Predict the 3D structure of the following.
Amino acid sequence: MKNVGEAPQEELATGERSTRNRVARSILDHGPSTVAELAGRLGLTQAAVRRHLDALVADDVVEAREQRVYGTRTRGRPAKVFALTDCGRDAFDQSYDKLAVDALRWIGEREGGEQAVAAFARARMAAQGGAYRKAVESAPPEQRTEALAKALSADGYAATARSAPPPQQGEQLCQHHCPVAHVAEQFPQLCEAETEFFAELLGTHVQRLATIAHGDGVCTTFIPKTSHAPPAAHTSKNTANASASTAGRNPA
């Protein structure tokens, strides 16, 4: 990975570059973050964090935005958070986006249109999902979302699981990084196939609330609380398909 937020002059000390990279990496791992959150995670003063953020903003590595609120909005102006830009994500993810887009476009134009792209997306998800299935099926029901998050993190998705904000009853699976975000922006079938797979794997209807591919700072999937989820292998296809109805769409 190249260093992000490098100053054009050579006088920027190695320690400064390292700390700046840590700030950017923390945003990648945890999603859009406030100055206070970054300072707490990195053990820095808020003044130091602001200084590094100013440099990262100037280099188009991060951008400031209003904090997106899910559930009941509290009084007052939403806090300002800092999120990675596309340029910032590219610094961490040296992928073959153009090749992938060209290949999927070729499939769509010559080999069956959108249905062929969707079939490819499902096959891709099934091929890489073996480790996810093993992790989920070996975990107790109440820990399956957390197990899936850890398996996704091992594949570079920087995923976390947390309780959903009231009044929702359930959990949120948050993927703070998406290695294929630029491709999914043009081919939402990738997001839809992933959401279908999560529903089938967890044995319940899930709902995609936000995606990085469509401008959100994090991919967020809501997993409702269930008393007795059916075994993942026996989840109906109808449930999985219904779960993907909002995949790849920004609800805002």
